[in-house]
Amino acid sequence: MSDAATRTFESQVQQLRAGETGTLPEAELEPVDAVPDMEELPEDPDTAREALARTIVLKLNGGLGTSMGMTRAKSLLEVREGRSFLDLIADQVLALRERTGARVPLVLMNSFATRDDSLAALHRHEGIDADVPLDFLQNKVPKLEAETLEPIDWPADPDKAWAPPGHGDLYAALQTSGMLETLLDRGYRWAFVSNADNLGAVLDERILAWVARERLPFAMEVADRTAADRKGGHLARRRETGSLVLREIAQTPDEDVDAFQDVDRHRFFNTNTLWLDLEALAATLRARDGVLGLPMIVNRKTVDPGDASSPAVVQLETAMGAAIDVFEGAAALRVPRTRFAPVKTTNDLLGVRSDAYDLGDDGALRLHPSRTAPPVIDLDTQFFKLVDGFEARFPAGAPSLVGCDRLTVRGDVTFGVDVVVRGSVEVDADVPDGAVLEG
Question: What is the reported pTM?
Answer without folding.
Answer: 0.93
